[in-house]
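Key result, reporting period 2: structure in, sequence out.
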């Protein structure tokens, strides 16, 4: 891995919680940080705060609503147009089990179940669109922020039109992230680009955890450290296709290891995002 001060890293969902803490840590280390979010005012405020805290002026704001695949494409196009390298991509943005919707089933602008769309499809499309730039920037790393909450995908009802449950929707989207990570690692040369995913911590004190009314267990500091490790630890050079629980290697839900299920998910994802 090249020194952090020589890297450009995109963090989605970086105006709050884990993403905000991670962006601050990366900026403190001298990286060029691309801060993504969907709220313009909060995004600009976040960038100003990070610059003020770290003295690093190479912190940039990128706005996109990941509930719209058109805006995901626009985000990727902006990165490609404005930066010549991308050494790290952290797909962190996501929504939890309750908000938005208070437990009701919602759809994205494209008509897909909202949690599947935001937590999984947006990162899938963004990664696919940026993969050429990432590979040209090697050595590089892709990190998908998943969860230990993982539910098998019912390919007969991926959009959960029957018996919708917010927890199941969230957990399905998180397993899909893991399955994509393993697929991606199989495609890539680990000597150039690695792809890993993690459960950063259990019920960290973030907005989605507070909205669910759950008492935090893992500190934000610990979750940030575990995620940062996958981006910068030289001991992980060449390590790819792994799922971590915090800083420990772990086994994902069994469907993630099923090549046929991963192929079905890949084919479905390509069709849904127009690849």
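The corresponding designed sequence is given below.
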């Amino acid at each position: 891995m090249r020194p952090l001060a020589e890297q450009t890293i995109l963090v989605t969902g970086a105006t709050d919680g884990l993403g905000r803490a991670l962006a601050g840590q990366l900026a403190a280390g001298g990286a060029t940080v691309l801060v993504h979010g969907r709220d313009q005012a909060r995004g600009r405020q976040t960038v100003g705060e990070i610059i003020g805290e770290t003295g690093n002026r190479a912190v940039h704001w990128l706005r996109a609503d990941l509930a719209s695949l058109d805006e995901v494409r626009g985000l990727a196009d902006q990165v490609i147009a404005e930066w010549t390298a991308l050494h790290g991509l952290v797909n962190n943005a996501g929504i939890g089990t309750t908000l938005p919707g208070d437990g009701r089933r919602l759809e994205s602008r494209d008509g897909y179940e909202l949690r599947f769309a935001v937590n999984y499809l947006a990162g899938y499309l963004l990664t696919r669109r940026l993969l050429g730039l990432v590979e040209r920037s090697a050595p590089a790393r892709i990190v998908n922020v998943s969860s230990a909450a993982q539910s098998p995908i019912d390919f007969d009802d991926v959009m959960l039109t029957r018996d919708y449950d917010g927890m199941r929707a969230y957990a399905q989207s998180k397993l899909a992230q893991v399955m994509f990570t393993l697929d991606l690692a199989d495609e890539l040369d680990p000597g150039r680009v690695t792809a890993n995913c993690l459960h950063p911590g259990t019920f960290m004190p973030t907005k989605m955890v507070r909205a669910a009314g759950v008492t935090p267990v893992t500190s934000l500091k610990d979750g940030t450290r575990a995620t940062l490790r996958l981006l910068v630890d030289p001991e992980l050079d060449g390590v790819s296709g792994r799922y971590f629980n915090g800083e420990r290697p772990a086994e994902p839900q069994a469907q993630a290891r099923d090549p046929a299920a991963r192929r079905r998910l890949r084919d479905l994802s390509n069709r849904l995002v127009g690849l």
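The beta strands are 8-11, 32-37, 59-63, 88-91, 140-145, 193-199, 243-245, 248-250. The domain at 4-273 is CATH 3.40.50.720 (Rossmann fold). This case is discussed further under Risks and Mitigation.
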